[in-house]
Amino acid sequence: MPINIGIDEQDRQQIAEGLSKLLADTYTLYLKTHNFHWNVTGPMFQTLHLMFEQQYNELALAVDLIAERIRALGFPAPGTYKEFAQLSSIKEEEGVPTAEEMIRLLVEGQEAVVRTARSIFPVVDKANDEPTADLLTQRMQVHEKTAWMLRSLLAQ
């Protein structure tokens, strides 16, 4: 059955493509954060272990919201490591970084997700797609706040 939500198919496709990149970035950041949760060591272990757990749990919920918005727009959501690796602007890490480097890498990842979300806004605004605009705004708020909190741990 055709989708008739007031957004033409071409705009819906462009939005879904942008959201697919956001989904890939979010999932990649989820995986990186979970990895760091498992492997962090050092004097800040307890603080970082718990903080990373809160962050990866929030990211796990976010990927579902993003994927469901892609589906609501009428397109398949990417869902494989191969697709995520092709779409994501966040690279995977090799080895186990120090706790301080983990924090830096997660700040970079949080900020990358914000940039990806922000890049989708022109087509979302043009199409008057308020549900996607709301989702993007909420995601940007979460990631900007998380980046600030992580960055604060690095202050000298």
Textual characterization of the structure:
- The protein has helices at 9-39, 45-72, 81-87, 99-126, 130-152.
- The model has no long low-confidence stretch (mean pLDDT 96).
- It has 156 residues and is mainly alpha-helical.
- α1 (9-39) packs antiparallel against α2, α1 (9-39) packs across α3 (81-87) and α2 runs antiparallel to α5.
- Helices cover 75% and strands 0% of the residues.
- The chain has a single domain, classed as Ferritin (Up-down Bundle), CATH 1.20.1260.10.
Summarize the main sheet. none
Q: What is the CATH class designation?
A: Mainly Alpha
Taken as a percent bin, the fraction of beta residues is under 5%
The CATH homologous superfamily is called Ferritin, core subunit, four-helix bundle
SS class:
mainly alpha
From the structure above, extract its key features.
single chain, 156 residues, mainly alpha, Ferritin
Summarize the topology.
Elements: H1 9-39, H2 45-72, H3 81-87, H4 99-126, H5 130-152
Care to give the gist of this entry?
The chain has 156 residues and is an all-alpha fold. The protein has helices spanning 9-39, 45-72, 81-87, 99-126, 130-152. It contains five helices and no strands.
